Amino acid sequence: MTASETNVAAGSGPEATVLVVEDEAHLAAGLKLNLELDGYRVINARTIREATAQLVQAAPIDLIVLDIMLPDGDGYGFCRQLREAGQFVPVIMLTARGTAEERVKGLNAGADDYLPKPFALPELLARVRSALRRRDWLQRGEPAEAARGTLKFGAAHINFDTHEVTAFDKPLRLTQLELDLLYYFAQHPRRVLTREALLERVWKLRNAPNTRSVDNFIVRLRKYFEAQPDRPVHFLSHRGAGYKFVPDDSSNP
User: Fold this and answer.
1) Please, what's the b/e burial string for 129-139 (b: 16 or more CB within 10 A of its CB; e: otherwise)?
2) Model confidence pLDDT, tens digit, residues 190-228
3) Which is deepest, 39, 55, 162, 168, by most CB within 10 Å?
């Protein structure tokens, strides 16, 4: 963000509360000023510890703008901890690391969006509005896309619209990316899908240098849904090719 971009006219913001986690004082002040001009209530935090303290306050946080490099840790780990704790507030990551590999890392950690520095302030504000609109659609029960329906296989039952998931008679909480990956597999049963194709179709990333990020998600799906994760019958590896989803385990051609 440049000095010339810190003077944005006031907008008719949605009166949401945005937590800006940024230790660079000049940038944090600029973000606070312009988000407030756009109609938001803004809270600043310089560290993960301060951000955590804000999240447990009575006033709800509607969105987090999160820097990656912080004095007491990194944004990847903080975002991952939020998701594992069941905190699904939208997160937009900011970082000087703009490679495809870093974007994959941020999205894998549970971020909703990722914006490399330096960035144009109008783009950040547009991404904030977009993330909050998606949140509002979900809260009102108005999905941002057509209904996806349900999926049953093995001992699993998934409702993609309500995010209700059970396996072996136990409820599970999947991240949005895990659900999106599972849905894409369900749309292409018994087809070998390359890591590159999965990154492009599910993660919306092209030419990512590290396609092994997909492997971690396959490990998770096996842990959730396979009776014996080390001997999978639903999520199969094809060496040198990719992965295949087999809804039933009667045969694995």
Assistant:
1) bebbeebeeee
2) 999 999 888 878 876 665 555 677 888 899 999 999 999
3) 55
